[in-house]
Amino acid sequence: MSYSQFTLDRVKTDFELTLEEGRALFPNPPELSPSPLLQQILQVYLPLALAINSEKARSEFILAPVLGDLKNQSDRPISLFSGKEFNVDSERGLTGFCDFILSKSKEQLFIEAPVLTIIEAKNEDIIGGLGQCAAAMIAAQTFNERRKQDVSQIYGSVTTGNIWRFLRLENSTLTIDNDEYYIKELPKILGILSLPFSES
Q1: Which of 96, 158, 170, 174 would staple 3 via disulfide (CB 3.0–4.6 Å)?
Q2: pLDDT, tens digit, for every residue of 102-142?
Q3: Collapsing DSSP states into helix, strand and coil, what is residue 83?
């Protein structure tokens, strides 16, 4: 079994999670202005990615530039991984590939704890991707615990590139943001993505 086989219902049952829905996860989201380079890249390639309409195109032309911009703007260490295998616990099905992993580490050659954020790219079906993202977030939580990294919250997002939906895992409580953010709200998206790296 791998992350992609998890539905939200199965994640809740298998890992005995409490789900919280129906509220804004970030009532007053912070904002981080995109760099001029990112603005230029999205102006050119966002229409192309949406026209191609594949997860790969959205990952390459939208997500990678956005996450790269977050890394470059941060004054804290952020390591960024794309399409990496993240095998944490095969007995519990916590294996497979994650579209993007963000870790609070300088290490870029391999994934090092603490892993703080999991991003999953989806073509159109954000709701269908919530289970996969949640399973990868549980893997990140387990990964950190085994390396004795005390991380109180793991963040995640399921995104089409154009639309972003955020999640937060704290202990055994998974909160799914009631709000969706569109790429035209990029400063808010970048601000939310920067949150786990600004926390001490």
Answers
A1: 96
A2: 999 999 999 999 999 999 999 888 999 999 999 999 999 99
A3: strand
Do the bridges between strand 115-121 and strand 154-159 make them parallel or antiparallel, or are there none, so unpaired?
Answer: parallel
Q: pTM for the whole thing?
A: 0.96
Q: DSSP 3-state assignment of 174?
A: strand
List the beta bridge partners of residue 118. Answer: 101, 156
- The CATH code of the domain that includes 33 is 3.90.1570
Peptide bond into 114 cis (omega under 30): yes
User: Which two tokens mark 188?
Assistant: 């808010």
What value does the mean pLDDT take over residues 171-198? Answer: 97
DSSP secondary structure letters along 47-74: HHHHHHT-HHHHIIIIIHHHHHHHHHH-
How far, in Å, are 66, 150, 151, 189 from residue 141 at the CA level?
24, 9, 8, 22
- Residue-wise pLDDT tens digits, 134-183: 999 999 999 999 999 989 999 999 999 999 999 999 999 999 999 999 99
Number of domains in the chain: 1
Identify which of 96, 142, 95, 134 has the alpha carbon closest to the alpha carbon of residue 118. Answer: 134
Identify the domain containing residue 132 by its residue range.
3-198
pLDDT, residue 200, reads 58
171 by Cβ neighbours in 10 Å (0-12 / 13-18 / 19+) ranks as exposed
